[in-house]
């Protein structure tokens, strides 16, 4: 009889320990919720700023690279033809 009572007591203690652990995990998750929300907000803000910076860089650097390419293209063609001519003679 006392063995059955001991098993019930052991089961009650184990269930209370498990319930305490679950409660602790739930409370920690609730306590960490503002931190997670803040981290998500920072991540979203940094992504938005990165997109804006990328668009501005493309808008500023893109036309500059286009003009540089158009100016340097004739020199590249002449240099390529000269290289072909020199290597054909060798």
Describe the protein.
The chain has 90 residues and is mainly α. Helices cover 98% and strands 0% of the residues. The chain contains one helix and no strands. The radius of gyration is 35 Å and the shape is elongated. The termini are far apart. 0% of the residues are buried. The model has no long low-confidence stretch (mean pLDDT 89).
Task: Summarize, please.
This protein has 1 helix and no strands. The protein is mainly alpha-helical.
Helical fraction: over 70%
Order of helices and strands: H
Mean pLDDT: 89
Taking the sheet with the most strands, its summary is: none
What share of residues are in beta strands?
A: under 5%
C-alpha end-to-end distance: 107 Å
Q: Radius of gyration in whole Å, from Cα?
A: 35 Å
The SS-based structural class is mainly alpha
The total count of strands amounts to 0
Shape: elongated
Number of helices: 1
Uncertain residue ranges? none
Draw up the topology in text.
Layout: H1 2-89
């Amino acid at each position: 009889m006392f063995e059955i009572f001991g098993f019930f007591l052991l089961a009650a203690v184990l269930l209370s320990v498990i319930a305490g652990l679950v409660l602790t995990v739930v409370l920690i998750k609730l306590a960490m919720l503002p931190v997670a929300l803040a981290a998500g907000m920072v991540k979203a803000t940094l992504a938005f700023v990165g997109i804006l910076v990328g668009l501005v860089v493309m808008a500023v650097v893109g036309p500059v690279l286009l003009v540089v390419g158009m100016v340097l293209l004739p020199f590249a063609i002449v240099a390529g033809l000269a290289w072909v001519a020199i290597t054909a003679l060798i």
